[in-house]
Design goal:
The chain has about 55 residues and is mainly alpha-helical. About 55% of the residues lie in helices and about 0% in strands.
Length: about 55
Amino acid sequence: MNGEILMPAKRRLTMRQLRQMLRLAGSGMSSREIAVVLGIARSTVQDNRSAQPRLD
């Protein structure tokens, strides 16, 4: 590995988690609150929220 620092792979959400995350986001919950409810990292929520198209 030659002294490289490897970052852990981002966790992929199941379809159920993704749907629940979108419902919670639509109800106005913050990324931090959603992460606590789903038991995942806030960065995972943020990455998945930014990947979803906005329907405003």
